[in-house]
Amino acid sequence: MADVSIIPETLSQMLTLLSPSPPGWGGNLLRGLMHSLQIALGAFGMGLIIGTLGAYGKLYGSPLVRDLAGIYTTIVRAVPELVLILLLYYAGTDLINRILEMAGYQRIDISGLVAGIVVLGFVQGAYATEVLRGAIKAIPYGEIEAARAYGMSPILMMRRITLPSMLPYALPGLANLWLIATKDTALLAVVGFSELTLETRQAAGTTKAYFLFFMAAGVLYLLTTLFSNLIVGRIEKWARRGMPSVGEAG
Predict the structure, then answer these.
(1) What pLDDT is recorded for position 217?
(2) CA distance 100 to 103
(3) Topology relative to the membrane, per the entry (predicted)?
(4) Ramachandran angles phi, psi of 4, nearest 5°
């Protein structure tokens, strides 16, 4: 029979390894999670701004604007995200410093947090463009015609008609983009940013408890997803108030 006396000792070792204070690594994992959420929030917000501009550019912009928006979304969605991250993180920061040097300024050290937000936000913007463009096209055209008949300016029509009306159609896609943003932060480990995945890898490599730490990281990602789904569900319920549910639509 297996010696069950080792179970309490094993559990004690696991709790020690994951405790938030030395000699545990729990604090490192939580710090990495906070960094991941900071990047995800910043990138998602930046992606929404780019996506809104891109969607309006594709739908209502000049031919040049539509072509530029189309090239942007096509390239970003075609190239693997890891390649884009490496390209934008290294080549982008080097390009900025070269431009500063040509203008007579000194080179700057770009914060890893800022660089991570900008890189992932640039990627998120391409997908958000298509999500929001589809949501705008789903708005009944009669609402747009009525707004124009009342003489609303494009900005006022966007604020009062387009954005509120497209929200229920955009939320499922935007929710997926948020979850993608939280997981894409793990790709920043390849450039040495201390998010959850890198902290987990360092803890596992030091203690050799690979299963324990990667399971802990998986649980943290899962909890983030479950909490996000809860928040998104509440927002979707609020956005669809007064609208028939899917079951009633038939």
Answers:
(1) 86
(2) 5
(3) Multi-pass membrane protein
(4) -75, -10
